[in-house]
Each structure stands twice: as C-alpha cells, then as structure tokens.
From TrEMBL:
Family membership: Belongs to the initiator RepB protein family.
Domain Initiator Rep protein WH1: 18-159
Highest taxon of the lineage: Bacteria
Name of the protein in its database record: Replication initiation protein
Taxonomic placement: Bacteria, Pseudomonadati, Pseudomonadota, Alphaproteobacteria, Rhodobacterales
Species this protein is from: Roseobacter sinensis
C-alpha cells in the first residue's frame, strides 16, 4: 500500500490544523465491510496516477487476499465490484475560487475481470476530488484488516481524517446517519436507538482495533440531540500500527543520496525500512566507488538484493555472487526474489503489508521488517505465502540455480 507523498500535502494535513473549507467526500455507509476494504485498496493502488491514467489494473488474486477473500473467490469479488459501481460518492465543498461545488458520482465508473487482472476506473470528476490530499484520508491496511464491523470501519475512516486536529467538528445527525448507512431507517432517527446500536459498538471497536481513541460528544436543542462530533487521541497501545508518513525517512541524508541517484520516493523509503540507513549508506559508498557502472540505481538494487558490496557481506560483484553451488534453501529464496522482482512497486508494497498482517509474534514481524523476504525466522511462512500467490512456483526447485518464474 502506498503512502501520500508528504511534500504534496497542503493545508490542514501539513500544518495540523483544519480550515473550515477543507473538503469532504461522503461515501454511502451502506457498503459492506469487505466492499469498504476493497474500495480503499483500489484507491491506494490508483493514487499515484489518479488524475493521469484513464484506468487502473491490479492482480485479482492479490486483491482478493488483501481484502480478506479466498484468493480464488472471484464470485464474491465480482459482487463487491458491482456494489462499488452502484454506490454514490457525494461532495459539497468550496473550490479554489471560493465557489461552492456540489457533485455526485458512482464510486467506480466501471470494473472488469479478465485474465486474472482487475481493471477499473473512476469518473474524471471523482478522480480529481480523490486526488486532493485535503480530501483523501489514507487508510492503513494493517489496521483495516482488524475491523469486523462495517459501521466501525466507516466511523474510523471519517474520524481518521481529523486525527491531527483532535476533533471531527460537528456533524448534524442526518449527516452522521448517512455516513453510517442508516439514513433510510426510521428506527435510527431516534437517537437512543442510534446510540445503542451504532455509535457505542462502533466507538468500542475503533478504540480496540485502531491507532486512535475516539469519544462522542453531542449537542442538543432543548432535549433533542441534533449534532455529534468525535474527540480523537492517539491510541498508545496500537501506536505501532500508525501510518508512517515518510517524514523520518525523508529527513535522512541517505534518502537524499538515493533520490539524487534517481531512486523513487516510494522505493527509497521501502529500502530504508527494509535494510536500514547504515547498510544502505555502505552500499551507496560501494556503488560510488565503481567506475564502470552504467546504471547506479539498478546496480544498487542488485547489491541490496544479492548482498554484495560492503565489508564482510560476501562477493563484491554480481557474477561472483551468483557463482558456485547453491543449496535448496538458497534456490527457493532465489525463486522468492524472482517472484518479488516481477511484481510492480505497488504490488510489492501490498505484498509486504499483507504478509506482515499474517504474522502473530512481534519477533517474527520485527525480523521480517529488518530482513524482508530473506527473513530466516519467517522462511517457512514466506514460502507458503508465495506458493499461495503462485501455485507450483517452487515445483522442481532443489539444489542448483534458482529458476525464474514463467
């Protein structure tokens, strides 16, 4: 999953204070829990080129796994995509000239499955709004997968946008009921019912499952509740799940060296998380010392992947790193590396996040975050993960050079 580039953020998300005109896109809360998760994954996959590309693609099996379907459950995926195409997104905001703008659009303009790939698109008007960092609320998939209630996830999404300001601001109850998907029920027009069946259970799950703690506050006219807002604080018990907005990585000298070499922002941060600043700095020094390197960024990627360059880290050149007898374990790890290499950057980010959510122990997660797919502690689970994504990927892999996937 991709983070929003921090240098592109403006206004409230950058300063930590909300302006009155910060835009909001309201999506019907009638989405099921799995549909809401699917919507977030598709948006995160598309975000980098949201206003440039006419359509987007994602591996259907990966998509199923990321939102909690069986990886072959395409019928459920079809039903959920159909639901997104039938769901309306609505916005009401001030534009840059100060003029009020209201609009509606289907959440997806189309979606199709063909050859194991999900292709989909947004309407141009909605894509323009979703691409605005003041509107887009980034959802951490590690947190999202912990939710069991669609109402709770909808409440989390609508509160997390304001986590830097400490409060959502006042919502009329009519607006809140619409966000929760119960605006067509007369039963929930009575606040006592709304509070008991929707608000209290959703607040309890947000506080238990997410990286924020929220508390509802109400405003009355006479004895009737008319408005609601939610106070928001960080959840210290789940701080490890909080979003890394990249600020720490982007302040490091190593990050500047990677960017100057032509490495993308996303990949630079990924490498820094996976390998650590010290190791990357050593690899950069090694690459800088080579006089015959045509593509330093590509050479650095190979050095990080194959472990050459730097004191005590094995062979100094790729040819040496690939020579000699290879054990069965090394062959399987080589196959994993080949599988990872054929994935897109977005898919690689999603694969790592998805695998992390499957690890139960803190030690296993820490070892994977440090060593990535070469984590010895998680070797068995890593092979099972990739075998599930690519059935038969390790067939015939034994002593000898690892084979590239077909």
């Amino acid at each position: 999953m991709d983070e929003i580039p921090r240098e592109k953020l403006t206004g409230a998300l950058r300063r930590g204070s909300v302006k009155k005109h910060v835009a909001a896109i309201h999506v019907s809360g009638k989405l099921t829990l799995l549909q809401r998760k699917l919507s977030n994954v598709l948006l995160l996959n598309a975000y980098d080129t949201l206003t440039q590309a006419r359509s987007f693609q994602m591996d259907a099996r990966t998509l199923c796994l990321m939102v909690g379907y069986n990886s072959n459950d395409f019928e459920t995926l079809k039903a959920s995509l159909r639901g997104l195409a039938e769901t309306v997104a609505e916005w009401d905001m001030l534009d840059e000239a100060g003029q009020q703008e209201w609009g509606v659009s289907s959440l997806l303009s189309y979606a199709k499955l063909k050859g194991g790939v999900c292709e989909y698109a947004y309407s141009p008007a909605l894509a323009e709004k979703l691409a605005d960092p003041k509107v887009f609320a980034l959802i951490n998939l590690n947190i999202q997968r912990r939710f069991t209630s669609g109402h709770a996830l909808a409440l989390y999404e609508n509160c997390y946008r304001f986590h830097r300001t400490g409060s959502t601001g006042w919502w009329p109850l009519e607006t809140f009921r619409r966000l929760m998907g119960v605006d067509d029920s007369s039963y929930y027009e009575i606040y006592k019912h709304l509070n008991a069946k929707i608000i209290k259970p959703a607040v309890a799950e947000v506080n238990r499952a997410s990286n924020i703690v929220i508390a509802p506050e109400t405003r009355k006219r006479g004895r009737a509740v008319t408005d609601i807002r939610f106070a928001i604080k960080p959840n210290p018990q789940l701080a490890i799940l909080d979003l890394d907005d990249g600020a720490g990585h982007r302040r490091a000298p190593v990050y500047d060296r990677l960017r100057a070499m032509g490495v993308s922002d996303r990949l630079a941060r990924q490498w820094m998380t996976q390998h650590g600043e010290a190791q990357i700095a050593g690899k950069l020094d090694y690459v800088d010392a080579q006089s015959d390197v045509k593509s330093p960024a590509r050479y650095l990627a190979a050095a990080l992947r194959d472990g050459y360059g730097g004191a005590g880290e094995g062979p100094e050149r790729p040819s040496e790193a690939l020579s000699g007898p290879v054990s069965a374990r090394a062959a399987r790890l080589g196959r994993v590396q080949a599988l990872v290499a054929q994935r897109t950057p977005t898919q690689r980010d999603a694969d790592k996040r998805l695998f992390l959510t499957s690890l139960d122990s803190a030690a296993a997660r820490a070892d994977f975050e440090r060593h990535g797919w070469m984590s010895a502690l998680n070797a068995k689970a890593i092979l099972a993960f990739w075998e599930d994504l690519y059935p038969g990927a390790f067939d015939g892999v034994s002593d000898g050079a690892p084979q590239r996937p077909g």
